[in-house]
Design brief:
Order of helices and strands of chain C: HHH
Order of helices and strands of chain B: HHHHHHHH
Chains: A mainly alpha (about 650), B mainly alpha (about 210), C mainly alpha (about 100)
Oligomer: heterotrimer
Strand content of chain C: under 5%
Helix content of chain C: over 70%
CATH architecture of chain C: Orthogonal Bundle
CATH topology of the domain at 1-78 in chain B: Four Helix Bundle (Hemerythrin (Met), subunit A)
Shape of chain B: globular
Number of strands of chain C: 0
CATH class of the domain at 1-78 in chain B: Mainly Alpha
Radius of gyration of chain C: 17 Å
Number of strands of chain B: 0
Helix content of chain B: 55-70%
Largest interface: B-C, 93 and 72 residues
Largest sheet of chain C: none
CATH topology of chain C: Helix Hairpins
Number of helices of chain B: 8
Distance between the termini of chain C: 54 Å
Radius of gyration of chain B: 24 Å
């Protein structure tokens, strides 16, 4: 069969990077945007073609592997640059390229007046390359290349406006916190390699059940370490603190990297290695618990924030928690399903927020918005769709995926996780509708100057919004509940998750009646949240201030994000900083510099002595001649 | 008889060479050097190298030393003033080295040259003739090369000595140019040859120059 | 006849005297003259050996040495004259153009 050229899917953005790097300055904005968007668009079409080819293959061996070249060969070990397309990676690739393409188009309009237009698309394409390498890799090493690459691009893009100190700090924070996670990832890979002798997915997953005893310390350690990496990349407890700060970057960056794609890498990684996790029930429990805890924690913080992007950031952390909850209870398909729908509506939310910010001349504080529904109707409409989706109101996409997660949690015997998810759903719809109301409804609190320039964004920004809104509406229809033999999405993913005890099977263990009750409860939870939000923020605005005053202590805690950042600073960052200061003063300055400079001084000393020989006087030289002759003759005389 | 002659010439040689290096006045040094050469020529004669002896007088004493004296006069050097601690130190080291070297040389000569007296040379053809035969047969090539060496030396000497005029030269030429108009009008020529106007090696003086 | 060691010893003495002159004196011309002394000492040794070994090759060598010495003197004096023009001095401890 002729190949589908998987390597081109990450390869085209890389080529665009190279061209941009070499010629970008001379190309002009229009050509740069065509180059960047075109590369991603072509990648998307290639991904579609590859997925269609995959669909045409029989279910039992639905995977395509294409090797580019052998990267390294050391003794028995060899690593190849090789790409794998199976149902899981096809979904990821389609989401990344599709949503990525829409965001690229949006960025053309959003960054139109920015001085570093070319650099933005350079980094954006570089990110696409790294992310696609990550999802299409067929071994851990190549995936790690992509893993690190997206971390790098995250740093570059968060600190895109590097002259702003807060942006530079945020970029550093993101990269360093990620590195801590990566440390875990590397150690996990090492443990796996030591025991199983290979880092290829196919080989590793095949031999794992023989090499690792069920629930043994080895596999538990390895998977926990891998999960540490996932918490870093996907902003879960304890490594989530970088994501809210990452909002310093331009809004398209927040949409692409910190909502739709990069942060989902951790979820993808857990799903990909589900064979290993299913061998270590302790790790799975940990995943579920941390997912649930993070979902609740982030939701509570989100209700007290005033910056529109911060609210969305905490919302992302919370929704990622849901995805990990799903994986933790064994419902990997549900987790990926939510990943997909979340990509649609979260990207839409961020892009819409960007549109609002753009319309209000860079205003980001919710307390200075309001009453914008009439004035920017298209933005308003699409944002409403997204908010309904994330709240989990049927028939929007979020409902189907969230419901499946909650159902699986309940059915797999994790009532605590289910309850946490339910409470989280209430909070989610509450704070999201709070955001919606404060922004678009009610009395306008917009400042005078900003109010003059309120305008809809240009088509390059509006069209992606509309497309994403459409996806947020219909995206869930691939996964309706209560289908005999599993819904479409499940059937697509079955070859990947069939091996090992599938949580998908557990989802069918409950009766239809129970399922209907669960659905009703999750919809009701969402509804409660919406009603509360409307009551507090629209119908009785004074209620908001009253509540805030009555529960002021609680509000303070939530507003200050439980002071987690300050805690980390005091316990980890400051001591490390102090140690490194001391090391610098003591070791680097005195010993290292001393040694190096010492060599210099010694040489100087020697040479200033030797220099005395070069007097320039012939007489001195003659003297040395004579001395030499003397010495020679002396030897002759002696023997 | 030859021994006595040799001893006399040797003594003169040693004394005059010592004087060469010890005299303050370079002219005196040069003259003593001439004396050394002449005594050396005598030694050559005693050693039955008559041709060499004659050539020694002609070339060394006659040509080379004249050249030396030319230059000494041309540069108009006076007595050497040699003072200072540094010079004493250098002198001390120099004499010390000389003494050690002489000792070493004496030891070597004493060790090896305990051989008997020299053999008498073959009579018959004269020294010059014998030398000539050798020179034009076996050593023809070096002989011809020598002529090239001399040519090169000639050309080189002319080129180098012509040179670029240094600051002394420029100053001298300025002084030579300026008072050229002066003496005609004002100064009564006290010395008959007007110092500046006359060309030639006219004792340009220490600050003057051979402006040519 | 004259034993070989006598002229050789004499040659060594004159050579050393010349060497001392090179090392001790400041005047470039006197140094040059000392060098001539050294050359002549070598010549004397050649002649002595030629006589000892009863071959004239040594004397041929003296011939060449003298030629080359003459050439050398011509050039050397030209250089000294040039140097004097440059620096107005023939004292070697006042000239350190070779420095560096």
């Amino acid at each position: 069969m002729n190949p589908v050229h998987l390597a081109l899917i990450p390869g085209l953005p890389l080529a665009a990077v190279a061209l941009n790097l070499l010629l970008g300055d001379r190309l002009g904005r229009r050509r740069v945007s065509w180059l960047a968007c075109g590369a991603v668009g072509l990648s998307f079409m290639l991904a579609v073609r590859a997925a269609l080819r995959l669909a045409g293959m029989p279910e039992e061996n639905r995977s395509i592997v294409e090797t580019l070249y052998t990267w390294m060969r050391v003794g028995d070990f060899s690593a190849r640059v090789s790409f794998l397309l199976d149902p899981l990676s096809s979904v990821m690739a389609l989401v990344v390229t599709g949503v990525g393409f829409l965001i690229h188009v949006y960025s053309v309009g959003y960054m139109a007046n920015d001085a570093s237009f070319r650099r933005f698309f350079l980094y954006l394409n570089l990110f696409m390359f790294a992310m696609l390498t990550l999802v299409l890799a067929d071994n851990f090493l190549l995936m790690f290349v992509g893993w690190e690459g997206v971390g790098l691009c995250s740093y570059l893009l968060i600190g895109f406006w590097y002259q702003r100190p807060s942006a530079a700090e945020a970029g550093k924070k993101a990269f360093i916190v990620n590195r801590i996670g990566d440390f875990g990832f590397i150690l996990g890979m090492l443990v796996l390699f030591v025991h199983a002798g290979s880092l290829d997915y196919a080989r590793l997953f095949a031999v794992a059940p023989q090499v690792f005893a069920f629930g043994s310390a080895a596999i538990t350690t390895a998977t926990l370490l891998l999960f540490l990496g996932a918490t870093g990349k996907s902003a879960q407890i304890p490594l989530y603190t970088w994501l809210p700060d990452a909002m310093e970057g331009p809004t398209p960056v927040s949409a692409l990297i910190h909502a739709a794609t990069m942060v989902t890498a951790g979820v993808y990684m857990v799903a990909r290695t589900h064979v290993l996790f299913q061998l270590a029930p302790l790790s799975l429990e940990t995943v579920a618990l941390i997912g649930a805890a993070t979902a609740l924690l982030a939701a509570t913080i989100g209700i007290a924030q005033n910056d529109i992007k911060r609210v969305l950031a905490y919302s992302t952390v919370s929704q990622l928690g849901y995805m990990f909850m799903a994986c933790g209870v064994g419902a990997f398909t549900a987790g990926i399903f939510h990943l997909m729908t979340h990509a649609f509506f979260k990207a839409l939310l961020f892009l819409g927020a960007g549109s609002v910010i753009h319309a209000l001349s860079d205003e980001q504080d919710l307390r200075r918005m309001g009453g914008l529904a009439r004035r920017i109707p298209w933005t308003h409409g699409t944002m409403l769709v997204a908010t309904l989706a994330i709240a989990g109101i049927p028939p929007f996409a979020g409902f189907f995926s969230k419901d499946e997660i909650l159902g699986s949690a309940f059915a797999s015997g994790h009532p605590g996780v289910w309850l946490a998810g339910l409470v989280g759903a209430v909070l989610t719809s509450f704070y999201m509708f709070r955001l919606y109301i404060l922004c678009f409804r009610g009395e306008s609190r917009v400042s005078r100057e900003a109010g003059h320039h309120v305008h809809e964004p240009p088509p390059s920004m509006l069209v992606p919004l509309v497309i994403l809104a459409a996806l947020s509406v219909v995206g869930g229809f691939v996964g309706p509940p209560m289908q005999e033999g599993g819904h479409a999405f499940e059937r697509w993913m079955r070859p990947v998750f069939e091996s090992g005890a599938g949580g998908a099977a557990a989802g069918h263990a409950v009766s239809h009646a129970t399922e209907w009750v669960l659905i009703a409860m999750s919809v009701a939870a969402a509804g409660v949240g919406i009603l509360l939000a409307f009551q507090i923020y629209l119908n009785q605005p004074s209620l908001a201030t009253q509540l805030q005053q009555r529960w002021s202590a609680v509000h303070r805690v939530l507003f200050n994000k439980y002071w987690v950042d300050e805690l980390y600073n005091a316990v980890v960052v400051s001591p490390v900083y102090r140690i490194s200061q001391r090391l610098w003063k003591l070791w680097d300055e005195k010993v290292v510099d001393g040694a190096v400079n010492g060599v210099g001084y010694t040489l100087e000393g020697i040479s200033s002595v030797l220099r005395l020989f070069q007097t320039g006087f012939v007489g001195t030289y003659a003297l040395f001649f004579a001395l030499g002759v003397l010495v020679l003759l002396f030897h002759l005389v002696r023997h | 008889m030859t021994l006595t002659l040799f001893a006399v010439f040797a003594a003169v040689l040693v004394v005059s060479s010592l004087s060469v290096i010890l005299q303050k006045n370079p002219v005196a040094s040069a003259l003593f050097l001439v004396l050394s050469f002449c005594s050396l020529a005598g030694i050559y004669l005693v050693l039955q190298a008559e041709f060499i002896g004659m050539v020694q007088i002609i070339v060394y004493a006659g040509a080379i030393m004249v050249l030396f004296l030319f230059v000494i006069m041309y540069l108009n050097l006076g007595r050497d003033v040699e003072t200072g601690m540094q010079i004493l130190v250098r002198r001390g080291i120099g004499w010390a080295i000389g003494a050690v070297l002489l000792a070493e040389g004496a030891i070597v000569i004493g060790r090896h040259a305990a051989a008997g007296p020299a053999s008498s040379p073959a009579p018959g053809i004269g020294n010059a003739q014998a030398l000539g035969v050798l020179l034009y047969s076996r050593y023809l090539f070096p002989f011809e090369i020598t002529s090239i060496v001399l040519l090169v030396a000639m050309v080189g000497a002319v080129v180098i000595a012509r040179g670029r005029a240094g600051p002394a030269a420029r100053r001298g030429s300025a002084r030579a140019a300026a008072p050229a108009r002066g003496p005609e009008a004002v100064a009564p020529p006290a010395s008959t040859p007007p110092g500046a106007a006359a060309p030639g090696p006219d004792g340009p003086g220490r600050t003057g120059t051979g402006a040519r | 006849m004259i034993p070989l060691s006598w002229p050789l010893l004499l040659s060594a003495v004159v050579f050393v005297i010349g060497l001392v002159g090179v090392l001790v004196r400041r005047n470039a011309l006197v140094i040059f003259m000392s060098i001539e002394l050294m050359l002549n000492a070598g010549n004397l040794a050649f002649v002595a050996f030629a006589r000892q070994m009863n071959s004239l090759d040594g004397q041929v060598f003296v011939f060449f040495v003298m030629t080359v010495a003459a050439a050398e003197v011509a050039i050397g004096l030209a250089i000294i004259v040039n140097l004097f023009r440059l620096r107005e001095s023939v004292f070697v401890d006042e000239i350190n153009l070779l420095r560096g």
